[in-house]
Amino acid sequence: MFDPYCLRRPSRCAAATGIVRTGTAALLLLVAVCPVRALEKAPLSFDARADFYSAYVWRGKALDKHAVMQPQVTTTFDAKEVGAFSLKLWSNWDLSQRSGDSKATRTGGGLNVLNLTPYYTKCFGPFAFTVGNIFYTFPGDGYPQNSKSTYELYTTLAYKNPVATPSLGVYYDYRGVGGSFLEDNPAKDLYARAALDKTVPLNESLSAGGTVLLGWGGSRYNAVRYCSAGEGFADYQMSFKLAYAVTDAFSIGGTLAYTGLVGGAWGLDRNDISPDEIVWGGINLRLLF
Question: How many Cβ atoms sit within 10 Å of the Cβ of residue 94?
């Protein structure tokens, strides 16, 4: 869930040569840069991922219970003591032509979610502080005309230690929930998520990891996003991952997760929503260069 630049597990070599990329321009750039990075670590890095999942789940809500592809690309400039500046592009692609109650996104297949996220990370010893802004666009809702796109400012704090990595993130949707920036009492518009991550290397190439997380929403946030009156815990998730490093730069893995919404006195109002527990998972591909 939370993977700040300074807490990522570095690849075993500074770079890999001979990586085939789509397009002649990208290939020439990679060939030109790799020999330099072999001698000296460049401040600019790229992280490309392609995830194939059995469902699209967002903050406890199963928005699509059919197969999806979620590619993303992140570029990071490491400014050393100043911190790291990153830009991430993430998207969700519907791989199914089916429609019905099990799909809240646009039917008919294709791209239906596109997120652009600039963010900044600064490390203070084992602590990593991140601040950024997520720009959500939904092409299936008529983007760029009549779009239901929204913007979300967020900050996270993580503490890496030998036992596990706890983190806390706070998100402020200042368009779709708040209406305008810092209007009224923004505490009612907040969504917060606490997580605990642990990764264990099984051998030189194989690693296993797990994450547990719990989300909480303010009164207005829960009303808009979950159609539930009042503040309280919103969602939970438990996931398990395996990753195998095929090369120094390329890895393949798998994810299995269980996600649901929290009800009861400390959670969401069950009279307004129905339980949405789901087991989902898929294959993860990752390329670092």
Answer: 24
Give me the half-sphere count of Cα atoms (radius 13 Å) on the Cβ side of residue 86: 27
The pLDDT value given to residue 42: 80
Three-state SS at 181: coil
pLDDT score of 29: 43
Q: Which CATH architecture has domain 5-288?
A: Beta Barrel (2.40)
Q: Please give the Cα distance from 274 to 101 (Å, whole number).
A: 13
First to last CA, the chain: 21
C-alpha triplet 31, 33, 38: angle, nearest 5°? 100
For the whole prediction, is pTM greater than 0.85? no
Reported as a single tens digit per residue, the pLDDT across 1-28 is 445 445 544 343 433 333 333 344 444 4
d(CA 176, CA 225): 9
* Strand, helix or coil for residue 37: helix
225-228: long-range contacts at Cβ-Cβ below 8 A with a sequence spacing of 24 or more?
Answer: 225/59, 225/61, 225/177, 225/191, 226/61, 226/261, 226/268, 226/272, 226/273, 227/272, 227/273, 228/268, 228/269, 228/272, 228/273
Domain ranges of the chain: 5-288
Contacts of 267 (CB under 8 A, 6+ apart): 232, 233, 234, 261
